[in-house]
Write a structure and sequence with these properties.
Elements (H helix, E strand, L loop, with lengths): L2 H8 L3 E4 L2 E5 L6 E6 L4 E4 L5 H14 L7 E3 L5 H4 L9 E5 L2 H6 L1 H13 L4 H10 L5 E3 L2 E5 L4 E6 L9 E5 L5 E9 L15 H12 L4 E6 L5 H14 L4
Parallel strand pairs: 4-5, 5-6, 6-7, 11-12
Antiparallel strand pairs: 1-2, 2-3, 3-4, 8-9, 9-10, 10-11
Amino acid sequence: MDIEQAVWAAQGWERLADGVGRRRLPGWDATTGLVVGDKAVLLYDTGATLAEGAEIRAQAEAITGGRRVTHIALGHPHFDHVLGTAAFAGAEVFGAVGMDELLASPRTREELCTDAVRQGVEERAAAEAAEALVAPRHTVTGERTLDLGGRQVLLANVGPGHTGHDLVLLVPGERETVFCGDLVEESGEPQAGPDAIGTRWPDALDRLLALGGEDALYVPGHGAVVDAAFVRRQRDELARRFRVS
């Protein structure tokens, strides 16, 4: 194990590439990802509560030698991926177009709180996180490149699919790393709630595969890292499930 890998592992994170890693959070096995540039640090998804967000922040700072998270990309608007956002004061928050208005809505915040409690989050913690929730200030239609200093990353609005606001993150490298959000799940069958747009989901995965290519590492919203063949199989299963080609 090299020094950088040991630093990530000491915090319970899986190093995927130089300056790129992720953690599988307890409870729902949701992924949070970290990308470190020379001038900026980007986090993909923030956990299910403010306490979990604060824990992620502390671990990210330990991995980066005390640097703070400067950018956040939210993969989609579900409680286990967004309710920790307020723990990252001053970070620039990005989301798929329309997610800003959605997360600013009192009704959405109430629904996120209710869903979190239904899934086992303590009621006070869920209410606190929902009240403090930070909506994206920057929205992505199509693709947007961010310069983190010494490396550029791509945010891509490839949905709708799992929700109406699915944002993925592509990190170039020797092998591209693609943070897929819940468009891809490995530790269970892809979950299609009331906000899923199932008939469009296979198309979203086609765009995801075109973006990452055959050799990329695909990081699901839940579960182990997979390859393009896994994503393609899941795409075909979803097409059968929702009766589309």
